[in-house]
C-alpha cells in the first residue's frame, strides 16, 4: 500500500514538472514586439511617409511603430490614422481616432474596459484598450504590438492642428494617400 502512495506522489510530481516545463516553453515562444534601433526607426519613418505634394502633411503626418506605445491612460489628444482589418480575408480599412486616453467612464468596477473604435466588413471590431489597439473577431484576434502585419498595416499620428487634419484614403493595397491626389 505504501508503495502505491509513493508511486502516486512521484507521478504527481512528474506531472507538475511537465506542466511547468510546457508553460515555460510556451512563454518563451510567444510573439515579441518588433524592436527597432533608433537608426532603423528613423529610416522606417522616412520610408513610410505618404507620397504627397502637400508639405504641411509631409511635416505633420508621422508613421508610428508599435514599440513607441503612443496609447496610454492619459491620452495625447492627437488624431491617429489606423489602417487595419478585422479578419484575414477582409479588405484594409482606414479609421481616424482621437486619442483621449482613459477616464473613469472607461472603467467597470475599477477595471479598464475596451473602447470600440470601428467595425470591419466581417463584423470584427477595432478596440482601444489602455495601452494598445486590438482587432477582434470570434476566432481571429491580434493586438497591434504583437501583430505581424496581418491585421494592422500602419498607424500614423497627426501632429498638426485639428482643423487641418487631412482627408486621407487608402488604395487597394492599404497604402495611405491624400484624397484627390
From TrEMBL:
Domain of life: Bacteria
PROSITE patterns recorded: PROKAR_LIPOPROTEIN
Name the record gives this protein: Lipoprotein
InterPro entries hit by this protein: Lipoprotein_mollicutes-type_CS
Keyword Signal attributed: yes
Signal sequence region: 1-28
Keywords, comma-separated and alphabetical: Lipoprotein, Signal
Organism for this UniProt entry: Spiroplasma phoeniceum P40
